[in-house]
Structure formats: structure tokens, C-alpha cells
Specification:
Elements lengths: L2 E5 L9 E4 L9 E10 L2 H8 L11 E2 L3 E9 L11 E4 L9 E5 L3 E3 L6 H5 L2 H14 L6 E5 L4 H12 L3 E6 L4 H6 L3 E4 L4 H8 L6 E4 L4 H10 L6 E3 L6 H4 L2 E2 L10 H19 L7 E6 L3 H10 L4 E5 L1
Parallel strand pairs: 9-10, 9-12, 10-11, 12-13, 13-14, 15-16
Antiparallel strand pairs: 1-2, 1-4, 3-5, 3-7, 3-16, 5-6, 6-8
Helix pairs in contact: 1-10, 3-4, 3-9, 6-7
Length: about 325
């Protein structure tokens, strides 16, 4: 029988356990996928711990939003898929598993040259960065400030902005800065004096900012340097975004995504898979752990690690 990682109470990573699950049949509009890799995201740990609002737990709850694998069975009323097709899975629940049944709109074909680990690493970071930059209307003539350029969302944002003709200034630690510069950004170290360093790096001015870290320093620097506050987005400071006059996506934002924002997130995955296949987008992979090590994986992602952690069933 296949296995899945579940939890029955909120708490530390140790509440995660691997259990046997039945091998179900896909219903109308669904696909059954053999999972080859599952992406581990910070939001997985937040949901499991109870730090991100979610309904009470009345039965074992699955975890994981992103994954990749191979189609095993195609349900009725589904076109464009066949058994054996490599795919990426995103915006779903339960990818920490050997097998998953998912709605077809959460599955896209995966180019053969893109590994399962690469595809599983894309969903949340790529969708978040792509939609945020589309919402900011980033393009030629812009100078974008990315706070946290070395993280998965930050790296994706840097690459999209460069591909779309913008100049990018990204904050980073000294240790991680060379990798961010390889993506096309000018890097500045965070810490005291950040505003002046960004101003020196971009004397032409900053036209838009994406905050992936949520510190007071990041928010204040954005407020000082970006004239149009509607072109400042935070992914972390949702609770006080309205008070600051800036926009918030995810990270506690009080409003759901609009239809257009949700469409951009879906669009990001096939677009980015194509870019990866063409060698035009870099995915930084971190540790790859067996599915049984899901508690360690979530502990590591909460503490911070270089590259995207994936679980391998």
C-alpha cells in the first residue's frame, strides 16, 4: 500500500507520522499521480504548528502543496494527460506521499529534461514571486528592490524581473551574495545603513519593492525609497500592511487572492518549467531526504537552509 505523511494535532515536527493509505481511483476531473519528489515549504511547517490559521483537526491531515511525479491513472472528463506522463503538481494538499489523487487543474506536464526534484521545488516559490511581480507590473525601465534575494521566492523574483527587462537590487548575506549576483542582481548586504547602500547602488531610484523577509529594516527602506506605495509588496507583514499603505500577498494577508492573481500563480508553473527546460531559469536544490524524514525536513526549513528541500518517496 502507498504511504503518506499526516498529523492529528498541531505541534512540533514530531507530530508528523507516516501511515499507510488506500490506493484510490481518480474521480471525474482527477488524476492519480505516483509522487517522485515533494517540495518542502515554510508554510507546511506553519500549518502543522498551528501558526498559520487553519480549521480544527478532526481526522488525520495530509501535508505538502508541491510535488512532481508520473501519471498513473486518468479519471473521467480529463483531457491532455496519459499514464506515464511526467508532471508537476502544485496548489494542492498531501504531496508528502507515495501517491496522490489531485484535481487536473493542479497538474501540468513536465518537460523530460526537468527533474522531479526541480519541478517539486517550484510551486509555492515560483507562483508567489511570479504573481507578486505581475501585480507590481515589473518590466523594462523598472529598478526592483528584492529583500531576501537568496531565498527560494527571492531567487525566483530576481530571475523573472531580469527576464522581463528590469534592473534588480537584492539584499543578501555576504555568503549567499555570489549566487544571487549570478542570477543578474546587484547585491547589497542587509543590516544598519541598508537604505543608504541601496540608494548608492541605484542612484536612478527604486521603482518597486518586494519584501520576502518582513523585518522593520526591509519595510522602512522600501517606504523611504519607493515613491508609489502601491508598488511595495510584502509577503510577510500582512497584519500591518494596510496601516503602512502597502500591499500584502500570503503571509497573513487579510484578503484572498483576486481571480487575476490566482490565474498568475497558475500561469507561473508551466511558464517556469519551460524556462528551466531551456536553461533560462535556475532552481537551487538543497537536501533531499526520504519521505520518512518529513519531521527533520520541516524542522530544517523552519530553521533555514540553502536551497530547496525535497522529500523522495
Amino acid at each position: 500500500m502507498p504511504h503518506a505523511v499526516v498529523y492529528t494535532e498541531f505541534g512540533a515536527p514530531e507530530v508528523l507520522r507516516m501511515v499507510e493509505i488506500p490506493s484510490g481511483r481518480p474521480g471525474p476531473g482527477q488524476l492519480r499521480i505516483r509522487v517522485e519528489a515533494a517540495g518542502v515549504n515554510p508554510v507546511d511547517a506553519k500549518l502543522r504548528s498551528g501558526r498559520r490559521a487553519s480549521p480544527p483537526i478532526h481526522e488525520p491531515r495530509r501535508t505538502g502543496a508541491d510535488g512532481a511525479g508520473v501519471v498513473v491513472e486518468v479519471g473521467p472528463e480529463v483531457d491532455g494527460f496519459r499514464p506515464g506522463l511526467p508532471v508537476a503538481v502544485f496548489d494542492t494538499l498531501g504531496t508528502y506521499a507515495d501517491e496522490i489523487i489531485v484535481p487536473a487543474p493542479s497538474v501540468v506536464p513536465r518537460p523530460p529534461s526537468v527533474s522531479a526534484a526541480q519541478a517539486a521545488a517550484l510551486g509555492v516559490p515560483a507562483g508567489t514571486a511570479y504573481q507578486s511581480l505581475r501585480s507590481l507590473r515589473v518590466g523594462p525601465g523598472d529598478t526592483l528592490l528584492v529583500h531576501g534575494g537568496s531565498g527560494a521566492v527571492g531567487r525566483a523574483a530576481v530571475q523573472y524581473a531580469v527576464l522581463w527587462g528590469a534592473r534588480v537590487i537584492a539584499t543578501s548575506s555576504d555568503r549567499r551574495a555570489p549566487g544571487v549576483r549570478e542570477l543578474g542582481a546587484t547585491t547589497v548586504p542587509y543590516g544598519e545603513g541598508l537604505t543608504d547602500r541601496v540608494r548608492d547602488a541605484a542612484p536612478e531610484g527604486i521603482t518597486a519593492a518586494l519584501d520576502c523577509v518582513g523585518t522593520d529594516e526591509a519595510v522602512q527602506t522600501s517606504l523611504e525609497l519607493v515613491a508609489d506605495r502601491s508598488r511595495i509588496v510584502t509577503l510577510v507583514r500582512g497584519a500591518d500592511a494596510d496601516e503602512l499603505g502597502i500591499r500584502a500577498f500570503r503571509g497573513g494577508s487579510p484578503r484572498p487572492l483576486t481571480a487575476q492573481e490566482a490565474a498568475w500563480r497558475r500561469e507561473a508553473i508551466p511558464v517556469t518549467l519551460g524556462l528551466v527546460a531551456a536553461g533560462a531559469f535556475s532552481v537551487e536544490l538543497g537536501p533531499a531526504l526520504p519521505l520518512s524524514d518529513a519531521p527533520d525536513a520541516q524542522r530544517m526549513v523552519a530553521e533555514g537552509t540553502d536551497g530547496k528541500i525535497v522529500l523522495l518517496p
